[in-house]
Specification:
Elements: H1 3-15, H2 20-31, H3 34-42, H4 56-65, H5 68-71, H6 73-83, H7 90-102, H8 106-119, H9 124-136, H10 140-152, H11 158-169, H12 174-187, H13 192-204, H14 208-221, H15 226-238, H16 242-254, H17 260-272, H18 276-289, H19 296-307, H20 311-325, H21 331-347, H22 353-365, H23 370-382, H24 386-397, H25 403-416, H26 420-433, H27 437-453
Length: about 450
């Protein structure tokens, strides 16, 4: 597999699970922020230059309920409602909405704020609070409309820009979200939620250098936060710097927070960099990390090592799989592991009767196991038992997925026996099914030798 494709796959694996659930956690963190709550409560005042006018009686009413709003919201609401009239100032509707908001009665609060902006369309604070409620309830398009209207009217605080960024990112519109988060961060440079939101936005736009730099700051501030190390590992993979990603994944393991997925990804990185001992170590740790994980990925890891010629390391991983899964392995997985071990033995030059017996047992359990048939053919070809090798190659050739390779191997056995003319039809059939340049050249050589024998 070409390196860029592999790295893209690794990044995708790491990214899995970092979506909407994380975003909802971000909103909850913002909602519970004491600074946010303090600013919200402080927003009950009146800015006479840009906000609805109030009568002297309404001012007196607001002054009367202000003390109650600190410790008796139901009484404050009852007192306010008793004095409100349909044509009262939008300030009263806004205040009522705030009281309802603080009691988590979002539907009623939304209605009060909508009445406020209907009476006074340039009421910035009411538009802001409408945006807050829409984000809280997951109505992101309406939130964007409310926050942008507030900004058009000259407003804009860190929380409004930050939640606007969150709303854009949820659409998803990462370019607009990035701009909103940058404004929020400008006003609140120490706010982790805005920095993390910005990081995700630039990452999604594949601005990996920006994301890595932002994460440097987050990791320095929160060195025990596993998510930041993992997200930066993704950025390094996106930057085609797999060994820097590996450093992050090793750091996660040292923190005691590595998962089977992150360790498998670490092993894949080392494998792609031809660091076979490190790859085997990571794969063994992945096996130990979660004994309940599906067996398919550890088996694939051992097979990948074997395919790259790392026979010792492949055996190490296979041995660990035996230790962990031997008593509860599915029959299909057991056959797959036995075939891998047979291939390793043959690659190491061990063509013992024991290897053949294992493969024969697999074929007895599943007569259509083409891989085992091919391995038996190779086994007997190496032992110079051509008739038995041909027997297994012919059986494998009856299976569509193995026909081409089986016919080529069969032809090679015939050539070794000097039967060039018999080998030619097998090679021609293989070329008909799946043309290959190397087989075409081999076919030409065999045809020349067959003609020379006539």
């Amino acid at each position: 597999m070409p390196a860029p494709t592999l790295l893209s796959c690794l990044a995708a694996m790491l990214l899995a699970g970092a979506g909407r659930a994380q975003g909802q956690g971000d909103v909850a963190a913002i909602w519970n922020d004491p600074v946010f709550q303090k600013q919200f409560i402080a927003g009950y005042g009146i800015n006479a230059d840009i906000e609805p006018r109030v009568t002297p009686d309404e001012v007196a009413l607001l002054e009367k309920i202000r003390p109650l709003m600190a410790d008796d919201l139901p009484k404050a609401e009852a007192t306010l409602r008793k004095q409100m009239k349909p044509d009262c100032s939008a300030i009263l509707d806004f205040t009522l909405g705030g009281i309802q908001f603080q009691q988590d009665r979002m539907v009623e609060a939304l209605d009060s704020y909508q009445k406020a902006v209907a009476k006074f369309p340039s009421f910035r604070r009411a538009w802001r609070n409408l945006g807050l409620i829409h984000v809280h309830d997951g109505r992101y398009d309406q939130a964007i409309s409310a926050f942008t209207r507030m900004i058009e009217l000259g407003g804009g605080d860190a929380y409004s820009f930050g939640l606007l960024g969150f709303a854009y990112a949820s659409r998803p519109d990462y370019q607009a979200a990035e701009a909103a988060y940058r404004n929020a961060l400008l006003l609140q440079p120490e706010n982790t939620e805005w920095r993390l939101g910005l990081t995700r936005c630039v990452f999604r736009q594949e601005k990996f250098e920006d994301a890595a730099a932002l994460l440097d700051g987050l990791i320095e501030r929160y060195p025990d936060k596993t998510d930041f190390w993992l997200l930066q590992a993704q950025t390094f993979l996106g930057m085609q710097q797999p060994l820097r990603a590996a450093e992050n994944l090793e750091a996660v393991d040292r923190l005691g927070q590595a998962s089977a997925d992150s360790l498998h990804t670490l092993g894949d990185i080392y494998l792609s960099e031809n660091l076979m001992d490190l790859a085997a170590s990571a794969y063994r740790r992945a096996v130990d990390a979660d004994a309940s994980q599906p067996l398919a990925r550890p088996l694939r890891a051992a097979e990948a090592l074997a395919a790259r010629g790392a026979l010792t390391q492949a055996r190490q991983v296979a041995a660990r799989v035996h230790e962990v899964w031997d008593q509860r392995m599915e029959e299909a997985d057991r056959r797959r592991l036995l075939k891998l071990e047979a291939r390793l033995s043959m690659a190491e030059g061990d063509d013992s009767a024991g290897t053949a017996a294992v493969l024969a047992e697999i074929v007895q359990l599943d007569p259509l196991d083409g891989e085992a048939l091919m391995l038996l053919g190779q086994h007997y070809a190496r032992l110079d038992e051509p008739d038995r090798a041909i027997f297994y190659y012919e059986r494998a050739a009856s299976l569509e997925a193995f026909e081409v390779n089986a016919r080529i191997r069969h032809a090679q056995v015939l050539v070794s026996m000097g039967r060039h003319g018999d080998a030619v039809p097998l090679l021609r059939r293989a070329q008909e099914v799946r043309p290959r340049d190397d087989v075409a050249r081999y076919l030409e050589q065999v045809e020349r030798m067959a003609r020379a024998q006539r």
